[in-house]
Amino acid sequence: MPAVKAAAIYAEDDDEGDEDEDDGGADLGATNLSEHDRMLDTILVEEELLITAHRLHIEETMELVRNEMNLLTGEREGPSDDRLCGPRRF
Description:
Largest sheet: none
Distance between the termini: 62 Å
Structural class: mainly alpha
């Protein structure tokens, strides 16, 4: 499932960021940039998860609509009103 794969990528990215935190605070600007990069990566991964979930929801909804349309089409192909009620007289 794509959500699991994206979550695994997120976990890998988070593990890689731990190396930057052990520099003893020598360069505060680099630490802030690294934190910013991790936040940006988190946002991008979560965006992909949201898009994937939305796409799956739309596909499920469209499948339901297709099934309903097939049911309605099948009902139209049944006996006609003329055969059930007889010919109309005006």
